[in-house]
């Protein structure tokens, strides 16, 4: 594994609800860790650990502005997740179509 390899993959990173929430929080804006921490009932250290996992997966970038570290979303790694989910959409579509047919047939089979 080379130095540029990610320590966490996108799937591991988004597995935690707090990290998914952090991604949503950073969608439209870059924020310092102090501001981010104010949105959560956990310690700043815990928020920083979650941000580190997201950064290791390439989902957030950090930059220093004076003494402050700011974070912003890097959405490109989410494309891997999108591609993976797209493969399974056909199964969901088939199941939803079958359910729709079942419901429609049940509704037209006559009432008592």
Automatic annotation (TrEMBL):
Residues 1-93 form the HTH arsR-type domain. Pfam families: HTH_20. The keyword Lipid metabolism does not apply. Keywords: DNA-binding, Transcription, Transcription regulation. NCBIfam families: HTH_metalloreg. This is Metalloregulator ArsR/SmtB family transcription factor.
